[in-house]
């Protein structure tokens, strides 16, 4: 009897228990079975397992927040958004993250709007997108990091202040263009430049998506006087409207080509030193990029030019148009630097941006180039560690070496090459490709030991066919296991076996 022929309720229970027993990584692979399975079965089971409550996007292949604007993220943000909506609509315990707070905020908006076409789920849906854009890395952050009632450490309380529902309501009013409600909240004394880690500040939302009336209302607030406001600059950069950018960040009439842009001398401690590069890396409008670059022209930092850092960022986001623009601006396709900065091709391979990989290789990017002398995260290893089969094939076709490289990279151990990552990801097709192209299994005993610890029996069988067997007293490959879900049992099991061996 085929599993898909089972009654829906039984299949759902089986999948929930399978997710809980096998973990998130293998559960995510189930969505590839078929479209019906993906839409009707997979998501409900995954969400009910609550595995995503404890999962963060700051993993070995995905550092940084979920960017839901101006980037090609292959549907990652959509997955987190759908789960966040699921949790916000279903959670009843206000002490579990801030899911209830999101629903209550949405209910207030519905009540204030008094519009029949606005239902609660629609408002929750919109608020959850905004919550992800504010820098939340995953719904797990809502669950783990926002338990303020239990916070006793002073630093934690300062970093995560207690929720202010009316401040979040001001941001929501800006998001839904509710000028009368925003006016009332401003009169109550809420600052449009502040936020409480749930939604972006109202001033950013107004610059990014608000109407002229909302922008005029918020920008006329006394706190938004002549001081530089990083949130409004970021919002205008996302929107891509040069006139709004000029309004929120007026450049001086005479630009001297240095650090003085009318706001005084800008150094690394000034808000602009972080806000302007961030805005340059999120905008898709070359005119805005030029405007921000001319308004403030930072010099190289420790051997790294800011324009190359921008190229790396846009390449990782999959912004083909901006990558072409920056390369046309004479930004080098490969650049050595003395900081731990990935090359543009490394970042692109890690993030799986196929179109940008094609563009960079076409413009002469070295498939074996690594941006930092000690980094060691060459493109093919980054692509393999992220499971991007198509990109691995492209790099090999362009002459990428299959041998291990020295050094360590993000989520990579010393000497761990593309073949090792194919085994660790249980990627049968990639293993076959690498073997066909001449790769060999290095340090096979350590690899077999690691696969044995992880319980990857099908992968272990392949390694055994090559003549390697696991050794119980060997720890295995030097991976940064703290970033793996399997790390909870792997190292403990090794130490247990070693103690038994000694005793």
Automatic annotation (TrEMBL):
* Keywords for the protein's UniProt record, in alphabetical order: ANK repeat, Repeat
Q: Membrane-spanning regions, if any?
A: none
Q: Which InterPro entries match?
A: Ankyrin_rpt, Ankyrin_rpt-contain_sf
* Coiled-coil regions, chain positions: none
Where are this protein's ANK repeats?
340-372, 375-407
Question: Which positions make up the signal peptide?
Answer: none
Q: Is Repeat a UniProt keyword of this protein?
A: yes
Answer whether the UniProt record assigns the keyword Repeat to this protein: yes
Q: What is this protein called?
A: Ankyrin
Give the source species.
Answer: Apiospora rasikravindrae
Q: What is the lineage of its organism?
A: Eukaryota, Fungi, Dikarya, Ascomycota, Pezizomycotina
